[in-house]
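A favour, since you know our structure tokens better than I do. It will help me judge whether the discrete encoding reads sensibly. The space below this message is yours for that.
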Amino acid sequence: MTITETQLHRYARQVVMPEIDEDGQQALLSSRVTILGAGGLGSPVIANLAAAGVGKLIICDDDRVDLSNLNRQFIYQEANVGQPKTQAAKQFIQGLNSDVTIELRYETMSEESLTEILSQCDILLDCSDQFSTRLAGAKAAFINGIPHIFGGAVRFDGQMASFMAGVEGYEDSACFACLFSEDAGVRQAPNCAQAGILAPVTSIIGTLQALETIKWITKAGKLNSNRLLLFDGLSGSFTSIQTSKKDKCSICFK
């Protein structure tokens, strides 16, 4: 792919960085990224990746925009209330960057459907709020050997990790199920509707997920692999916890 003069101008603040440069921008424009969930985390992910010039975004969500979403899901407007989030997200992206191709999956995602989608993708961003959907995404990412960039947020707290299990060169890396066992779905923490959430928290975590994605595609810097990054919004602090591959993990143990 050859970058046009218009694209060089549009992405000039990225291309000028030696870690990105023109090759990295070409990689972004040629990349295919799946976003699982278009809510509080998905909104900053979608905005950042569309602005950066990711070539194709596949947006998977089975929900509709609700008035209560608008305190944090800033890619939507009052006029979008009642619309499928996938369709409203497409309208936002089209208004921001015509370079981006968009594929919508307005349905509840299964391991089988995600495995098929991810077979043609570079990376999965997990912005879901359902444990079963996260687990399906983790399994599909592992099967396809691509990174699974996980994010979570509730109240003032957030967490993010880059699960690299199954990716070539990351044989010792943990997967989602190494940290969160399948029975964790039964013990799942209260969701945002039950416990509350603030926009700055989802924005911080979603932006970190987008940053990990850009770094992976452009090969700039190091990913947050084998670490769970915790954010405490009340103190404004980050804590990093070392993670490791779990013996007899239901996904990645061989």
Q: What stands out?
A: The two ends are 39 Å apart (CA to CA). DSSP finds ten helices and eight strands in the chain.
